[in-house]
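user: can you give me the structure for this one chain? tokens are fine.
assistant: on it. calling the predictor now.
[tool input]
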Amino acid sequence: MPESSRAADGVVVLGSDHNGVELKEQAKALLIECGYRCVDVGPYTAEEKVDYVDYAKTVGHIVDAGDARWGVLICGTGVGMSMVANRFPNVRAALVHSPEVAYKSREHNDANVLCLGAWVNPPQRNLEILRTWLEAAFGEGRHVRRVEKTKPHSREKVVFTNGVFDLLHKGHIALLQFAKSLGGKLVVGINSDRSVRLLKGPDRPINAERDRKAVLENLDCVDQVLVFDDFTPTALIRELHPDIVVKGAEWTAEEVRRRDGTPEDIEVRVFPLVREADGARCSTTALVQKVRACAEP
């Protein structure tokens, strides 16, 4: 099942049981004030007792299907709601009773459903938690690899990544393995020798495109290698139209989308930079400099 579409990014779906109706109305007012579009699946009165399971399933299904970016569930403690919502593959429901945890659930876990306890905190405290949760952003970076392991990934998806891949190092391998884990076919685009010289200078690449291509094709995680002659892979991405594009974390996902002109219906994932034991980031340029330094008399 898909992550939320770009059109669903501003949509929040809310549900509760009878214990959370009043707080749900207050939460909805806050969300509308903040510019979100709200879908309230009920209940609409606290006079009749209802089963929290039914409303958690409805919200979970909507978020799981990608029809809403966010979900808010409220019962007495939030526990039951979170247990039910997390049964849906694309739901990452966080049971939150403090603003600190609200922030971390977004930054570290990319939570997309917030579960609140109407009995646990007074209304203003719960609204503070909601506001904090809405304002927090996923930290990406080192958290991406961990969050992606919690998601289902279709073997039918085509994943694309690109780079020079001149002298392979452990950062390259980690990125390629991560990219392959997101789908069933990994296509790697590599810069032609001509474009590498224009990007990196006349003494690069160290290895010719045919050799770089051959090395990558012999990795188990790579299914296809294509050479492109432009500075960016924009034309190749538009021709292939993969399901997911993966890049290193030199950029955020939105920066990658703008830089490479990636269409809105293609997911963008960033992989955290891999570092050496001394803390320096793994890079071919640094590797070339190290080799040349060792070769000097």
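assistant: here you go. Residues 257 and 263 are 7 Å apart (CA to CA). Residues 21-33 form the longest helix (13 residues).
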